[in-house]
Every structure is written in structure tokens, then in C-alpha cells.
Amino acid sequence: MAENESNIAYLFKKLADGTASKEELAAYFELTKDNSLDDKITALMQAELKNNATPEIQDTERIDRVYNNIEAAIRVQQPAIEKSNYPFFKRWAAAAAILIVAGGLFYYSQNKPSKNNTQLVANDVAPGQHTATLTLANGQKIVLSNAATGQIAKQAGVSIAKTTNGRVVYTVAGNGDAETGQLNTLSTAKGETYQVNLPDGTQVWLNAASSLTYPARFVGADRKVKLIGEAYFEVAKDKSHPFKVTTNTQEVTVLGTHFNINAYSDETAVATTLLEGSVKVASNTNTEIIKPGQQTLTTARGITINNNPIIEGITDWKDGDFALNNQNFKTAMRKIARWYDVEIIYDASIPDTMQAGGWISRNNNISAILKLIESSGQVHFKVEGRRILVRK
User: Which stretches make up the Protein FecR C-terminal domain (predicted)?
Assistant: First the structure.
């Protein structure tokens, strides 16, 4: 343990200075797989900020240099990352790069608060919650934050329970009346998120302002669910019974895989992003099969394939984060609006092509998110109740 801590400190320093060899980069990122080193890596990043940014004077050139060095290291290691399919690495690599620069800006703004930052804190909005509403086939509605742990319902020979870690789990408990096709719906409002284990073992994470409709028990040739909004799926493998996700404009068919679907009505396209396995996306007469690391974008004009989606910015919500680097600013603000249940109002000076940036936990109040974005110098925010005014 002590040896690993010493090695990670040595390698992080070389990484930040831009002097690490390719072999040293590989060794550093291999060590990030060790969960016990999380606190050590965080401490190294914080030390880097304290050594190179002060409330009075920010060494912006040094911070920029560190940021560029780490981003370059990530690019060098990217092929190995994709082959290993190790999501923990992706998160820490992004955090290491972004916290060095964005964290320095936070340190400065928190120690020298502007009048506008004071206003943001005074009119703060708390983050969303881990809750949802479960609607059973008979119309009964269960607000899951109010439900006790343990069995909450039973239908079609299936036990429905709420676990201690806050998810709904369906367990086949007997033969039941399997032909009834009883449908359940798990729905979240703005500012809510939840997880469900479906009766076939498939795990689904449901984002804010979304709903998933599914049978209490899968019967027949396929396993079909309907999605409104956004969800991340880890589908249980069953070659004999394809898993199908339908939205208003497309149908996704898989056998067993990990993927994310963003089907919000206020987005320009339905985005299906594949992390593992293979999926077939069909819309009208168009059909595309994609590989891990690809994304389909479905519109009224058909389906197009994006070969280079930024995965961290797509699945960040599932991990409890906002990863906004290289995202369209207004797209990022829609994500924020759904989680904090706020309305975004733009001044005419805000262009549609502006980019966002930064990484921060979704567990923060909205003031922390807005201060991070403001630190870029591109925009300023004013909070009025649950309305966020954006101006240059």
C-alpha cells in the first residue's frame, strides 16, 4: 500500500509536469484502478492547486500547462482505455485533468467572491433526489421515497421490493398469471432519478423527467419496454428473447449489452450510445447496427452515426456527475435544468454554438455548478427563484 502511494505520487508529478514517458503514463493509469488510492489521488490534485494557485494571484499559465499535459496523456492512453473498457479510469482521468484547472478557478472564486457569486449563493437551489413514482398495473401509485424497504407489491407471480440502497427490484416468485401482460411504469419528475432491476435481471438507471414502462413479467418472444426521456441500460443476456426499447421515434434491439438512450423531446435527436456489446437501431425504414464507442442520432430525416461521442458527457448523470467538457453550452444547461428543476432564460447575446466546460458532482447546490461555468469568463448567471438568467 505504502509503495503504491509513493509510486502514484511520483508518477502524478511527472504526469502534471509533462515529463512522463509512455510507460510511466501506463503505470500511472494502471494504479488508478486501485480504489484504495482514491483519497491519495484527490490529495495530490488538491496539493497541485494549493501550490500553484493563491487567492491573490493565480498562476494561470502553470494551470493551463498542467491541464494540457494531462489531456495529452489521456489521448496517448486512449486506445488502451477503450480496449480495457474500464469506466473507473475514464472518470478519474477526466477528473484529474479538469480539477487541476477548474479547481484552481474554484479556489480563487471562493476566496475572492464577486457580487454575482454572492447573489448565486443567496438564491441557491438544492440538487435533485433519489426518488421516483411507481405506477402498478391496477393504477396504484407508490412514491418510492415514502415507501418502506422490503416488498411493496406483488403481481403476475412477481415480488416487487424496495432495497435498502434505494432501488426497485422485481423477483419472479412463482408461475402467476403470466399471460395478463400487466404493465408497470417507473417515472421521475425533474430533479429525480432512480434505478430498477427488471424481472429478467436487466438493470436500468432512469434520469430526471423520464419514464420507463415495462411488463411486471416478461412473456413471449421478446422483452419490450418503452422509454420517455433518458435511461442507461445493462441488459441481461438472453439470446432467445431480444430486449427492445421503444421511444416515440425509434426501436433499439439488443441481446445483452450496456447502452444509454437520450430521448428527451427538447433535444434535436434521439441519441443512442453503445458502451458494450451490439445494438440495432431502427426508425421507419432505416436500420443501423453500431459497435461500442459509437452513437446513433435519430431525427425525422433518418439515422446518422457519430463515431466519436464523448462518453463521459453522456453517462455522467448515471455516476452522479456533470462532465461538461466539449459539450454545447445550451445542451449542458438543459441537463442542469432537468436536475435542479429550473427554467433557463437566455439573453440574445448567447450564441447557439458556445461550448461548456468543467466537471463537478451533481450532489452540489446549483450555485457551485454555475460558479464553475462562470469561471470560464464566457457567461454570467442570475438566479431568480427557479429561473436562471444567462447573459454575456
Answer: 322-390
